[in-house]
Design a protein that fits this description.
Residues 1-23 form the signal peptide. It comes from Flavobacterium restrictum. 34% of the residues lie in helices and 27% in strands. By secondary structure, the chain is α/β, with parallel strands linked by helices. α3 packs across α4. The radius of gyration is 19 Å and the shape is elongated. The N and C termini lie far apart (73 Å).
């Protein structure tokens, strides 16, 4: 009887050591891209929609809060805008909708994110784009499948944000 409880305790301990965690803000933040020309001074980022909180007992997800913060940091880092506005009284407003995030299984994980961005200037839609990007994590990146999935989520989200930043040159003011 003791051995059954001991086995259960070991199983539960191992299981919880491999808990899933949400895609991190740092992992999703674009730090290696600068825009050619600043688009505007201040931008307000509306609440990000479509993301999911991570259940530690299941799989890694991209939360709305973490994605919004990574996007905020990426915009500032790229110099696309000089400030992130805390209220909506400015000219520039960005809406974000995480349409889909794939859930692969296996040893090499490739996550594909599809995210829709809408940028408004003075309540007029000036940019709308749905961006699909992928991110790959292999066994050499992490042995744990939960960590590989989190890394693939982060890379895919970061690639998506980077393509957004690159696409903003299409914005006509």
């Amino acid at each position: 009887m003791k051995s059954k409880y001991l086995a259960l305790l070991v199983f539960v301990s191992v299981f919880f050591c491999r808990c899933a965690s949400s895609a991190s803000i740092e992992g999703m933040t674009v730090k290696d891209y600068k825009v050619e020309k600043q688009i505007g001074d201040k931008i307000f980022i509306k609440s990000v929609m479509g993301g999911k909180k991570t259940n530690p007992l299941w799989v890694s997800n991209i939360s709305n809060e973490n994605f919004k913060e990574a996007l905020r940091k990426s915009i500032l880092e790229s110099n696309a805008f000089s400030e992130i506005d805390a209220i909506t009284d400015g000219d520039w407003v960005l809406e974000v909708n995480l349409i889909s995030v794939s859930r692969p299984i296996g040893f090499n994980l490739t996550v594909k994110t599809k995210i829709e961005y809408k940028l408004y200037n003075k309540n007029r839609l000036v940019f709308s784009k749905s961006i699909s990007q992928s991110g790959n994590a292999t066994m050499s990146d992490a042995l744990s499948g939960t960590k590989r999935l989190r890394l693939a989520n982060e890379i895919s989200a970061r690639n998506n944000i980077k393509e957004l930043l690159q696409s903003l040159k299409e914005v006509s003011q």
